[in-house]
Design brief:
three-stranded antiparallel sheet; 1 helix; elongated
């Protein structure tokens, strides 16, 4: 008898994209949108790793992921 099992996870990445040359206030708006959506998904946005920030050369991207 084998002890091997398999699992498959589907990850959904939610992104909030701000162009590099956008006004400062747009970053706050994207943060607020991400925080609201994280809460709506039943997660706690106060954790340090609830969302992440990255860039792609032309944009600043705030994102969070959920696994289905």
């Amino acid at each position: 008898m084998s002890l091997v099992t398999t699992r498959t996870f589907e990850t959904i990445r939610h992104e909030y994209i701000i162009p590099n040359d956008a006004p400062w206030s747009e970053l706050g708006k994207a943060y607020a949108m991400a925080k609201r959506d994280i809460e709506d998904a039943g997660k706690d946005p106060s954790y340090d790793d609830a969302a992440r920030v990255t860039g792609d050369g032309e944009n600043v991207i705030i994102y969070w992921e959920e696994t289905k």
